[in-house]
Design goal:
6-stranded antiparallel sheet, globular
């Protein structure tokens, strides 16, 4: 059982990952390594000094133990996920895809690519 399932956020994690996969495929970035994202591990609670709230902080790690992405789940059910892509945009060579992000609540998730200018 993954940490996400243990804390009953499994459906939310699935929605976030599904949204990231759809966004990647939309631009021709059909990455197989994102399939492992269903299994994220709890790293602890993160404190937000602005509103004094806490959020579950989880990470996705690759087979070498490197952090590939993170997920924050807030007490109100809102979540934010980011996963490193780190490759040139296949349709816009002037852009580099840094990451794919998703955010929202169960059933209401959106996703987007984080782009930066490529110097290639």
């Amino acid at each position: 059982m993954s940490t996400a399932d243990h804390f009953a956020v499994g459906p939310l994690v699935k929605d976030l990952v599904d949204a990231m996969c759809v966004e990647l495929r939309r631009y021709g970035l059909d990455r197989q390594d994102i399939l492992a994202l269903q299994d994220c591990r709890l790293k602890g609670l993160r404190h937000d000094p602005v509103d004094d709230s806490h959020a579950l902080y989880m990470e996705w790690r690759d087979s070498y133990g490197h952090c590939r992405g993170s997920l924050l789940v807030y007490a109100d059910g809102m979540a934010y996920a980011e996963w490193d892509v780190l490759q040139l945009h296949p349709q816009r060579p002037q852009c580099f895809v840094e990451a794919v992000t998703s955010w929202g609540r169960v059933g209401e998730v959106k996703a987007d690519l984080n782009l930066c200018q490529s110097w290639a």
